[in-house]
Specification:
alpha+beta, Pnp Oxidase, Chain A, 9 strands, 17% helix, globular, Pyridoxamine 5'-phosphate oxidase family protein
Length: 150
């Protein structure tokens, strides 16, 4: 190993710290896959009682929906890093949640429009006609959950 490479040691977070970061940081990156092809998207989430929810806007040719269908295990990353003038003083943390993603049935109580609007930021759409966008609620069934900090 190159002796000139600098390292920063990290440590694991407690379950309470991980849960706090998921509750307090409303956005992250959802990574999906189709065979050997990966697709990652920035999304807003809602974390409640150990469940991680995503509200996605999808169109008929939605790449997100296609990748969710082919993904066996998704990874969701929430993180923060604060740069400083001194590299040894840099602070940051990250939380990784892994598991399958499933569509929440529209008759599920979690799908109530009023509750969803309270739990999520407004849906972001890009160049799509509103009539073409279908809102879909997904849940990541957390099988692995870990957090690191330094």
């Amino acid at each position: 190993m190159d002796p000139d490479v600098e390292f920063a040691y990290t440590e694991g977070m407690s379950e309470d710290e991980v849960a706090a970061h998921l509750r307090e940081t409303p956005h992250g990156v959802l990574s999906l896959a189709d065979g050997g092809d990966a697709y990652a998207i920035p999304v807003f989430h809602h974390y409640e009682d150990g469940a991680l929810y995503f509200r996605l806007g999808e169109t008929p040719d939605s790449r997100k929906a296609a990748y969710i269908e082919t993904t066996e295990t998704a990874t969701y990353v929430v993180y923060e890093a604060a740069a400083t003038d001194d590299p040894e003083e840099q602070q940051g943390w990250s939380v990784l949640a892994r598991g399958p993603v499933r569509e929440v049935p529209s008759d599920d109580p979690a799908y109530d429009a009023v509750s969803i609007n309270e739990r999520f930021s407004p849906i972001r759409i890009f160049d799509e006609a509103l009539d073409d966008v279908e809102l879909t609620l997904y849940e990541l069934s957390i099988e692995e959950l870990a957090g690191r900090t330094n």
